């Protein structure tokens, strides 16, 4: 952890945040590239290595067919900026605050019913705490950056950004904790499940009886809780 000069940090934060806002508003890949160049130059001048690394990864991943990339990248950079400002120091991308001994879980699913069922399933383990929920992949990335969960329970079929997109962003930018996929779209052992594991998912657990099952806690609760525990060393 590199301690930063408080006066320099005070000057850096609003200017960098303003550049993040310009990146978020970029309407085409050329503007996004210029925005990333400006952010890279500023982060490099101030010697904030974790931001430099994130921006370099984003530049390599620029995709003219992915209109969500500028906004998602800007959100991730702003979240990292906030963590750096709070710490008064540069932080490695994988850094996470020490937890109170309970397993901190983020639940990501576009169905409010499924989020409730997952919450009930993991609540059977007194050592697990659900710290946040998200209804799409972009919101999930924000929640990961903000809450630093030990494990994320991730759905695949979601609006805005799907589960594959979340895992690809994590592969590029890094991210806290482990990911356990819970999805009816990727039964364990299927080609989709193999692809998810290659993208960094620690485990893949199928939803029983399709996407909506009031018996989730009974049918798959044990498997989900075992996957949560197995995902963390």
Automatic annotation (TrEMBL):
Signal peptide: none annotated. Residues 104-222 form the Response regulatory domain. The keyword RNA-binding does not apply. Transmembrane segments: none annotated. This is Response regulator receiver domain-containing protein. It comes from Humitalea rosea. The modification 4-aspartylphosphate is found at residue 155. The keyword Phosphoprotein applies. Keywords: Phosphoprotein. It holds the Pfam family Response_reg. GO terms for biological process: phosphorelay signal transduction system.
